[in-house]
Design goal:
The complex is a heterodimer of chains A (about 110) and B (about 120). With about 110 residues, chain A is mostly beta strands. Chain A is built from no helices and twelve strands. In chain A, the strands form three sheets. In chain A, strands 2, 5, 6, 10, 11 and 12 form a six-stranded mixed sheet that branches. Classes of the chains: A mainly beta (about 110), B mainly beta (about 120). Chains A and B meet through strand 6 and strand 11 of A and strand 5, strand 9 and strand 10 of B.
């Protein structure tokens, strides 16, 4: 079946630390991959996306590369800020006669000053 | 950018009553809207997919008679939780896709927190 697996949180980092949140997927066909961010009490916001193998999505200092050979889409940022504290969701979209988004469980990130 | 609003943002209702949640696309036409449910510290669970002018498609295990979805126009979808019970308390989030869905991008509303007492 189709699924997304993320590293469990919470992840706690100090400001300016390097961030990696692992994400792997299982899918039939060729899904598009996304990272969404959810700040407390809010809905999801698209952070970045990649629609085909070897594509790199980037936004606000975050990056993720679509790795077909390892079925991964790990999220990275070189220097986190307190304002990056949020929940991050990895997701894929598949077309099964209609588009459907499958989300990972989410990883909560705390950044300390 | 594309904006999706939800109303109300929070609602408290008594057990046995019905609650309607609105989801609107403010600056684009949404051919498809999705309704999700999110439990505390958990991921989003897709409840149903609705296309303008047609019946919603519900995910397995979601009671369509309890969660009524109407997508009457290209900018509005509503979710009605009928005869709500405390176990229906949750965070409900809608998302919408624009008419040009080629980028597979969804725009999410800010969510509605429902508390059933």
């Amino acid at each position: 079946g189709n699924s997304v697996t993320q590293m469990e949180g919470p992840v706690t980092l100090s400001e300016e630390a390097f961030l990696t949140i692992n994400c792997t997927y299982t899918a039939t066909g060729y899904p598009s991959l996304f990272w969404y961010v959810q700040y407390p009490g809010e809905g999801l916001q698209l952070l970045l996306k990649a629609t085909k193998a070897d594509d790199k999505g980037s936004n606000k200092g975050f990056e993720a590369t679509y790795r077909k050979e390892t079925t991964s889409f790990h999220l990275e940022k070189g220097s986190v800020q307190v304002s990056d504290s949020a929940v991050y969701f990895c997701a894929l979209i598949i077309n099964t006669g209609g588009f459907k988004t499958i989300f990972g469980a989410g990883t909560r990130l705390f950044v300390k000053a | 950018g594309a904006v999706v609003s939800q109303h109300p943002s929070r609602v408290i209702c008594k057990s046995g009553t019905s609650v309607k949640i609105e989801c609107r696309s403010l600056d684009f036409q949404a051919t498809t809207m999705f309704w999700y449910r999110q439990f505390p510290k958990q991921s989003l669970m897709l409840m149903a997919t609705s296309n303008e002018g047609s019946k919603a498609t519900y995910e397995q295990g979601v009671e369509k008679d309890k969660f009524l979805i109407n997508h009457a126009s290209l900018t509005l979808s509503t979710l009605t939780v009928t005869s709500a019970h405390p176990e229906d308390s949750s965070f409900y989030i809608c998302s919408a896709t624009a008419r040009d869905y080629s980028s597979y991008e969804q725009y999410f509303g800010p969510g509605t927190r429902l508390t059933v007492t």
